[in-house]
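Incident log, structure service

09:12 report received: a user says their structure output differs between two submissions of the same chain.
09:20 pulled the input from the user's history:
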Amino acid sequence: MTGPHTPVDAAWENDFVLELRLLDVDGRLIGDALEQVRTHCTDSGESAAAAFGEPAPYARSLELPAEPARLGRILVPSLVGLAGMYVTLDAVMALRTDEPFTLTIGLLVAIGVMVLAVVMAAQNLRAVVDHAVRSIVIGAILLAVAVTAGELLTGAVAQMPAQPVVVLGIAMLLGSAITEHRAAAGMADPVVSPVDAAGAAREERSALRTTVLGAWLLPAATAILAAAVWFIF
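09:34 re-ran on a clean worker, output below:
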């Protein structure tokens, strides 16, 4: 976030902000609380740790109001886009080899595993943050399960022409991206200082750009992978 230089330790600030983020506190409220800490440390000469103790317990003690749950608004478009990516890439491969698109048990399992992984991570952010290494290992295992299922469970559930499936997958990707793009203004929530209006405006513009770009990341990645499938394989 923006703000004047203060003696507050960067690690303390980061842990303080992270805890409030995990509590779903609005970015402006976080910025205001952080500015109060900075002001106290500047005026008193104390460190944040000496004045307020550990950052996470202090953040919880403030009992700042949480924002309304945004998990659904974030997750649903992302999950639709993720499924669209899987469907599009499989359909492009079928189109490239002049074969019909085959909906296999493995594809359904792969999509299900990845959706489950995203939902579990989103609903257990504190555990993901507190146990980062374990979370990475679990994520790698789930990814391996998804890839293995896609390769080994080849039993056909349904077959259909590849072209309309490509269109369906692209529609899912674009629908997901457009939904996230249109919601970007409400989702961008930077931590901004209440005493630096110009800096706050810059932070908000930067956060909005990042959120908008993030909305189109999955379609862009799918396009690159689809091109690789088409021209390399």
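09:41 both user submissions now match this output. Likely a transient worker issue. Closing.
09:42 reviewer note: The beta strands are 101-104, 156-160. Residues 10-62 form one domain.
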